[in-house]
């Protein structure tokens, strides 16, 4: 801001007056140095002029100091965020001109600050609500800006995130320690070209697509990084590949068996009635196995789509359990397994689809028989609370490891790594979705070599 020229002359004028006084005094002294009256006049005049000079100088200095003091107060007020400050416009013309210029500047700053605050609020709202993570990093891969989505993806705790968001925008918020993410940022800085890469972030093991774009921030180099979470997409892709692989595996064996049996018959074995009867029986078994697989796939697909029709009614769950036990009685007796179950004559009603509940219990009991050793024991029990009935199937078989328990309800998943056990690997997945369709969930409690317990709850009538 420029100081008015008239005010500058006020500061220079005393010095001009002083010089003129000295010049006049010297001139008089030279012309009449021996005249006492002249000498006295010079002394008096000089004293009067000096006193006048001091008065004028004091007045100018006082006004100048007051103006400087007010200017300092106004500058501090603006610096401390008081954008509504108005410089006092009183006094002489110079001060009013100065005050007017200062207040115009303050109003412009106030308007610019409000515009910046409005843009900052809009940007903050966008960043806060974005599903994608956004990070701004400097040339050393230090964070200068981060939104909540990126905070969650990077596993930054809430207290640390709160500290980061309260840090000045020009300060670093810490290094990015993920090696792959740090590398892509440094490569972007060094080449000044965008980079894109899929990265597995710890500790949440989220797969993200990171796009790093170079930016110029306040005259320095920086990088804008967007993180798109593609974990679900990757899981879907993996599930699709596993599904194709598992279906192919499950169909390959019966198809190969049927083809081999048919080729054998075509090569002449068809003339031997005993061989023909045996081969046709085996072909029929393989076809039934494939039909079962296709049927279970269709049912699972319907259950997962949520379009399955539920015929809900009052069902005596004890009677349904008894029906399942009788259906699998021959398998249990074949391994000398004792199956304990509740008395079917005790009426314990639940509100469920009877056919689908029988299928759930059938799948659980069939699994228990398959993985329980000879002369083992299986207990099917029911218990009730105020409005719920719990059904559990417990065995003392081989049990399930902690790692396998995470996947046991996935389709085609088999605990037996060799996949030599019978079954399609869809039974527990179907049971889980049926229970979920009844607004419930299946729980598993198991320890290796100690047995397993599957349980679920249904609403009472």
Shape: elongated
Judging by the overall fold, what is the CATH architecture of the largest domain? Answer: 2-Layer Sandwich
CATH topology of the largest domain: Heat Shock Protein 90
Number of domains: 4
Largest sheet: 5 strands, antiparallel
Instruction: Find the structural class using helix and strand composition.
Output: alpha+beta
Q: What is the string of helix and strand elements? A: HHHEEHHHEEEHHEHHEEHEEHHEE
Q: Report the oligomer.
A: single chain
- Count the E strands: 12
The helix fraction, in percent, is 40-55%
Which runs of at least 5 residues are low in confidence (pLDDT < 50)? 1-5, 167-173
Briefly summarize what is shown.
This protein has 461 residues and is of the alpha+beta class. The protein is built from 13 helices and 12 strands.
Describe this structure in words.
This protein has 461 residues and is of the alpha+beta class. It folds into 4 domains: 5-112; 130-229, PAS domain (Beta-Lactamase, 2-Layer Sandwich), CATH 3.30.450; 233-305, Helix Hairpins (Orthogonal Bundle), CATH 1.10.287.130; 312-459, Heat Shock Protein 90 (2-Layer Sandwich), CATH 3.30.565. It is 55% helix and 18% strand. The protein has helices at 5-31, 36-79, 93-129, 148-153, 158-165, 179-191, 231-266, 273-305, 317-327, 329-334, 354-370, 402-405, 427-437; strands at residues 133-138, 143-146, 195-201, 206-217, 220-229, 312-316, 338-340, 349-353, 377-384, 388-395, 443-447, 451-459. The strands form 3 sheets. The protein has a 5-stranded antiparallel β-sheet. It has a 5-stranded mixed β-sheet with strand order 7-9-10-12-11. Helix 9 (317-327) packs across helix 11. The chain is elongated and about 160 Å long. The two termini are 85 Å apart. Mean pLDDT is 76; it is low at 1-5 and 167-173.
């Amino acid at each position: 801001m420029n100081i008015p020229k008239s005010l500058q002359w006020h500061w220079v004028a005393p010095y001009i007056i002083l010089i003129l006084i000295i010049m006049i005094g010297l001139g008089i002294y030279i012309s009449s140095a021996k005249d006492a009256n002249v000498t006295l006049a010079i002394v008096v005049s000089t004293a009067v002029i000096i006193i006048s000079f001091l008065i004028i100088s004091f007045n100018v200095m006082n006004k100048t100091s007051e103006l400087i003091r007010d200017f300092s107060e106004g500058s501090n007020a603006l610096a401390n965020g008081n954008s509504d400050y108005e410089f006092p416009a009183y006094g002489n013309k110079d001060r009013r001109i100065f005050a007017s210029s200062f207040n115009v500047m303050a109003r412009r700053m106030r308007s610019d600050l409000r515009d910046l605050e409005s843009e900052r609020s809009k940007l903050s709202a966008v960043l806060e609500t974005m599903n994608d993570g956004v990070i701004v990093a400097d040339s050393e891969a230090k964070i200068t800006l981060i939104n909540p989505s990126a905070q969650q993806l990077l596993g930054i705790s809430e207290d640390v995130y709160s500290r980061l968001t309260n840090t000045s925008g020009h300060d670093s918020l810490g290094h990015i320690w993920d090696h792959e993410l740090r590398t892509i940022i440094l490569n972007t800085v060094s080449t000044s070209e965008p980079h894109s890469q899929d990265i597995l972030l710890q500790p949440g093991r989220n797969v993200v697509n990171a796009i790093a774009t170079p930016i110029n921030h306040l005259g320095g180099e920086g990088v804008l990084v967007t993180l798109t979470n593609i974990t679900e997409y990757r899981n879907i892709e993996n599930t699709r590949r596993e599904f194709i692989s598992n279906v192919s595996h499950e169909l390959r064996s019966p198809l190969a068996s049927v083809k081999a049996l048919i080729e054998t018959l075509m090569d002449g074995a068809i003339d031997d009635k005993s061989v023909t009867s045996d081969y046709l029986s085996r072909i029929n078994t393989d076809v039934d196995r494939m039909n079962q697989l296709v049927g279970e796939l269709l049912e699972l697909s319907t259950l997962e789509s949520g379009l399955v029709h539920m015929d809900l009614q009052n069902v005596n769950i004890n009677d349904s359990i008894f029906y399942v036990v009788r259906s699998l009685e021959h398998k249990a007796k074949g391994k000398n397994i004792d199956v304990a179950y509740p008395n079917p004559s005790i009426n314990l009603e639940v509100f469920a689809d009877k056919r689908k509940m029988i299928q759930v219990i059938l799948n659980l009991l069939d699994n228990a028989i398959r993985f329980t050793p000879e002369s083992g024991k299986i207990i099917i029990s029911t218990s009730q609370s105020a409005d719920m009935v719990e059904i559990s199937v417990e065995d003392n078989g081989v049990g399930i490891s902690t790692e396998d328990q995470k996947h046991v309800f996935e389709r085609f998943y088999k605990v037996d790594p060799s996949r030599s056990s019978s079954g399609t690997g869809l039974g527990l997945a179907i049971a889980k979705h049926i229970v979920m369709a009844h607004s419930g969930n299946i729980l598993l409690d198991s320890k290796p070599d100690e047995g397993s317990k599957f349980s679920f709850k249904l609403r009472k009538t």
